[in-house]
């Protein structure tokens, strides 16, 4: 039977919630316990499904009747016709100055921003993990060379480096391949922060006992890196890759706003804002929807990254006022249950309970019993039990002892 103090200790350590669960199950439980992260996943999935299914992708038609390249006459001066979730109208996000449907253009911009974000996350994540893992594990001249390379890339302003690489991608490729190339080139410039974090993690893990055991067992360096150390660093990697993707979409937006990202006739969320910056005071909806999608996507990625960080880091504990109150109630009920018998007995006799009675009922006696004799209390109890000065002397015993010694 679990006592009250034991229950308090289990709840304080979280053992009652994660006892018997694997590491993956614990991570999933913590992540899905983060409300903001779970909501962000569904919102981000909704944006992805809406953007790719509405206007189609790679020749697959969508359910929306307009394309982002279709021209037409403006309706209602290009103002949005959205009147509710069940009344979208012909142009729910309005039209630009030459009559293109702004909903289709925003969906195309969201498509390209999501593609670039994923490509940057994959490329930057792979390069950063490999460079950080190799430099942190091998140390020596390998670490020196790779870290000096990281320092060279870091000292170049990221926006300038990404602008040069984006210009090269825009002048070499066209269409969707230009978007993928842009993400690839930006990924080549944004991996340095992740590499330093992974290196620090590997420097710590390479000195652990399980690495020494694998090395003694004859495992190769490649196997130790990718089979033993890397799985223990997955929390740091996943969290920082998600944050890398969030910063990547802002970087792509900035490049497109400056005219160094996605080129016409394609559009991105940043280029939509750049093209319509002169119409901010007269037609502000041309800013509302691209800006709203940028903010929502970045917030979703950040909330998911925060949820992953809390799930993978055991030191991150979410404070719950309800759970703290339950612990206090359990502690109070345990103390009350322990003192209740003594209080009841003393009250039944007609006088107030004493402190010694309460202590005795809780299992602690203020007296020390010696064998089967009467209880002996007071400061002389220990001395009497050990044959102290209160025990009478035996002269005959001493004389007999002396006689034996003489013999």
TrEMBL record:
Chain ranges passing through the membrane = 36-60, 112-138, 145-166, 178-198, 229-251, 285-305
**Alphabetical UniProt keywords:** Cell inner membrane, Cell membrane, Membrane, Transmembrane, Transmembrane helix, Transport
> Any idea where this protein resides?
Cell inner membrane; Cell membrane
**Where in the sequence does UniProt note compositional bias of the Low complexity kind?**
330-348, 371-382
Q: Where is the ABC transmembrane type-1 domain?
A: 114-305
Q: Composition bias, kind Basic and acidic residues: at what positions?
A: 388-407
**Membrane topology, record value:** Multi-pass membrane protein
Superkingdom of source: Bacteria
Q: Does the keyword Cell inner membrane apply?
A: yes
Q: Does the keyword Cytoplasm apply?
A: no
Query: Which segments carry the region annotation Disordered?
Result: 1-20, 320-407
GO CC terms in record: plasma membrane
For biological process, the GO terms are:
transmembrane transport
Classification via InterPro entries:
BP-dependent_transpt_permease, MetI-like, MetI-like_sf
PANTHER family linked to this entry? OLIGOPEPTIDE TRANSPORT SYSTEM PERMEASE PROTEIN APPC (PTHR43386), OLIGOPEPTIDE TRANSPORT SYSTEM PERMEASE PROTEIN OPPC (PTHR43386:SF2)
Q: Which family does it belong to?
A: Belongs to the binding-protein-dependent transport system permease family.
Q: What is this protein called?
A: ABC transporter permease
């Amino acid at each position: 039977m679990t006592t009250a103090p034991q229950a308090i200790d289990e709840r304080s350590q979280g053992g009652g919630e994660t006892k018997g669960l694997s590491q993956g199950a614990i991570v999933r439980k913590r992540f899905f316990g983060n409300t903001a992260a779970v909501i962000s996943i569904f919102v981000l999935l909704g944006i992805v499904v809406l953007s790719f299914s509405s206007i189609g992708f790679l020749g697959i038609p969508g359910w929306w009747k307009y394309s982002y390249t279709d021209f037409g006459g403006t309706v209602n001066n290009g103002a949005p016709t959205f009147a509710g979730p069940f009344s979208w109208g012909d142009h729910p996000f309005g039209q630009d100055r030459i009559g293109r449907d702004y909903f289709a253009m925003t969906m195309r911009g969201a498509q390209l921003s999501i593609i670039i974000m994923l490509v940057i996350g994959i490329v930057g994540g792979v390069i950063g993990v490999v460079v950080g893992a190799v430099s942190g594990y091998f140390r020596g001249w390998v670490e020196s060379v790779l870290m000096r390379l990281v320092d060279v890339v870091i000292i170049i302003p990221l926006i300038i480096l990404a602008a040069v690489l984006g210009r090269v991608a825009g002048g070499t490729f066209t269409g969707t391949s230009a978007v993928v190339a842009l993400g690839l080139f930006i990924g080549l410039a944004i991996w340095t922060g992740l590499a330093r974090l992974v290196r620090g993690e590997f420097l710590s893990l390479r000195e652990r006992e399980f690495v020494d055991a694998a090395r003694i067992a004859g495992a190769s360096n490649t196997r130790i890196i990718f089979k033993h150390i890397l799985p223990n660093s997955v929390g740091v990697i996943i969290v920082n890759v998600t944050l890398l993707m969030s910063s990547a979409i802002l970087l792509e937006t900035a490049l497109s706003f400056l005219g160094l990202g996605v080129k016409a006739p394609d559009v991105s969320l940043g280029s939509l804002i750049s093209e319509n910056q002169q119409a901010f005071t007269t037609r502000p909806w041309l800013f509302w929807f691209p800006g709203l999608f940028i903010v929502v996507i970045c917030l979703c990625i950040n909330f998911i990254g925060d949820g992953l960080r809390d799930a993978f880091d055991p030191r991150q504990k979410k404070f719950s006022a309800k759970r703290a109150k339950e612990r206090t109630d359990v502690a109070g009920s345990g103390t009350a249950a322990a003192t209740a018998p003594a209080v009841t007995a003393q009250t039944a006799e007609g006088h107030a309970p004493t402190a010694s009675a309460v202590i005795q009922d809780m299992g602690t006696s203020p007296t020390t019993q010696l064998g089967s004799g009467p209880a002996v209390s007071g400061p002389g109890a220990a001395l009497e039990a050990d044959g102290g000065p209160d025990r009478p002397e035996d002269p005959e015993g001493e004389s007999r002892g002396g006689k034996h010694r003489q013999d």
